[in-house]
Amino acid sequence: MLFIQCNDKAKVEDEMSLDSHLTSMSQLVGYHTLSPAAGLAPDREVLPTGMRAVDELLDGGFVAGGTHCISGEPTSGASSLLYQAVASAQAQGVPVLYLDMAGRFDRPKAAAAGVDLERLPLHSETSLEKALLLIRGQMRRGLPGLLVFDHPAPLPLARLRASLRDAPLTLLALSQGSLPGMQVSLECLRQEWRMERGTAVGFISEVRLTAHPFLPYRQVRACFDVSRGEACSARR
User: Fold this and answer.
1) Which of 15, 100, 119, 175 has the highest count of CB atoms within 10 angstroms of its CB?
2) What is the pLDDT along the chain (236 residues), one digit of tens a residue?
3) In 50-127, which residue ranges form alpha helices assigned H by DSSP?
4) How far, CA to CA in Å, does 97 sit from each of 45, 58, 65, 139, 170?
């Protein structure tokens, strides 16, 4: 019992000493120069996805200059969300380069989501080495700001980072499964179809944030329009 009382007394004295020290420092350098580290948030630029609830999920959008993955099976909303993000980047004046190495790019669906196909350099190069040369060539022209990568096999992220380590660009990959090593990962899972008069007009998916350097795991429910091929609304 005495031992516990001694510890409590020492703890109080330490806290008083710390408070006294902080007060003295504040008086010396200014009261607004010291603040709890827990209240500090990292400054970062973001690229909005163009889908309100997903941007809330990401605290504003994708991390500019980071590596990202949107994963999901067909009719999960993954490609619709990716096209929405491309359209949003174009609307902000961010140059986009799309490497369709899997041959899955859907022009009508992308156009329905708002992608300006006339301003989207689309390449179907299947060789990674040639793709990297292509990216370097685009960079010499000041492009791109956003690199979209649809690769049929697991993305060789280490090689990409080594080759593009000096490149001021944001990487966004589309994959059917999650890709290890990505800073930000979104997973789309279809939950239910939206039916009207026996016809599927859309579907509800869960969009899960499974990896992020600053944010915890969280998710939203998002609605996708089948006929227009776009993310039309979202809700929690």
Assistant:
1) 175
2) 333 343 444 443 444 454 555 455 545 544 344 444 444 344 568 999 999 989 999 999 999 888 899 999 988 999 999 999 999 999 999 999 999 988 999 999 999 999 999 999 998 877 778 877 887 777 777 667 899 988 877 667 777 776 666 667 889 999 988 888 889 999 999 999 989 888 988 899 999 999 999 999 999 998 888 777 667 767 66
3) 52-57, 78-91, 107-112
4) 20, 22, 14, 10, 10
DSSP for 43-67, written as a single string: ---EE--S-HHHHHHTTTSEETT-E
CA distance 236 to 219: 8
CB 213 within 8 A of CB 59: no
Identity of residue 112: A
Looking at residue 40, what DSSP letter applies?
-
pTM of the predicted protein model: 0.77
What is the C-alpha separation between 192 and 203, in angstroms, rounded?
6
- Write the CB contacts of 221 (distance below 8 Å, at least 6 apart in sequence): 191, 204, 205, 206, 207, 234, 235, 236
